[in-house]
Amino acid sequence: MIENNNDRVFHCPACKNEEIIEFTDHIHCPICNLDYDKEFLGVMDDENMLSRQELGGTVNAFDDEDKKKMLKDDFWS
Ligand SMILES: [Zn+2]
User: Fold this and answer.
1) 25-47 pLDDT, tens per residue?
2) Ligand 1 centre distance from Cα of residue 77 (Å)
């Protein structure tokens, strides 16, 4: 679920928070409650970054699934 095979430190483009939750292909900022695709991070400037929520689509259902996985992984312990 959460891969740490990447030395890059991601941060939230919106609030610059580095306490983000890292998933295989995206990050989640618990402060903004937004998800960002990793493939866009580092490619686009922070101010141009669009969250998955802003990009639209079927993100919300997916997001809930991620949150469940996150809790299962006991990320916060
Ligand atoms: Zn944020």
Assistant:
1) 999 999 999 999 999 998 889 99
2) 21
